[in-house]
Design a protein that fits this description.
4-stranded mixed sheet, Histidine-containing Protein, Chain: A, single chain, 3 domains, alpha/beta
Length: 221
């Protein structure tokens, strides 16, 4: 028997987003405003750390019915920290991170904004470097220019991505197609939620050597 899929109204999505923000222990719901139009959520307000801004966006994208997020939250620090202090803290944090090869990631800081550069072998290492830095006190934003060095042929990458999507329980592999051009993966097809779309993209990024993912998967609600 077919199961009917109900489409959420913008008001319902707004209520669910506000509930999700309230549920997240990292956030104070009264700091953040939520506007929804045609399934696209706009976040407003201000928070006292870049981590909170990023956490709010992450929480919203897990809500069913959300098609995209425009994150207009401002970061206002209770007290300023010098760029030198932030740069030293970032360099130490990267050095202590066991997932990162020593000396591969360089840091530059300007007015609280951190820029990361260098070469790594895996996408998760690039993500981990950014994750480590954005938690630091005084950081207002992060630009991640780290390169992922390719180490496999396009056919190998396509097979690895397809296998990874099949293994995951979050995405229906039969509805997703994979193309690889050089080190770029292109995903097409349809899924039932943003979580499935995100999981397919995560699987693509997990392939060693992938430096770009174009996620053209459509959400059918």
């Amino acid at each position: 028997m077919a199961v009917a899929i109900l489409t959420k109204t913008d008001q319902q999505i707004q209520q669910d987003v506000m509930a999700e923000l309230k549920w997240d222990a990292r956030l104070q719901p009264n700091e953040i405003g939520v506007i929804v139009k045609n399934g696209v959520v706009t976040l407003t307000g201000w928070v006292d750390s870049y981590l909170k801004k990023w956490s709010a966006e992450e929480a919203v994208l897990h809500v069913a019915g959300v098609k995209a997020v425009a994150n207009e939250i401002e970061v206002k620090l209770p007290s300023e920290r010098t760029d030198l202090d932030i740069a030293e803290a970032a360099a130490n944090a990267l050095e202590w991170d066991a997932a990162l090869p020593p000396g591969k990631v360089k840091v530059a800081v300007s007015k609280g904004w951190v820029t990361l550069q260098g070469d790594v072998e895996w996408k998760f290492q690039k993500e981990d470097a950014e994750r480590v830095v954005r938690r630091l006190l005084g950081v207002k934003g992060v630009t991640n220019l780290i390169n992922v060095v390719p180490r496999a042929t396009p056919s190998d990458l396509k097979r690895k991505i397809e296998d990874a999507i099949v293994r995951t329980a979050q995405a229906d592999a039969s509805r997703i197609t994979v193309e690889v051009h050089g080190t770029k993966a292109i995903l097409r097809g349809t899924v039932r939620s943003w979580a499935e779309k995100h999981e397919a993209e995560r699987a693509a990024w997990s392939a060693p050597g992938i430096t770009e993912v174009e996620n053209l998967i459509m959400i059918e609600v």
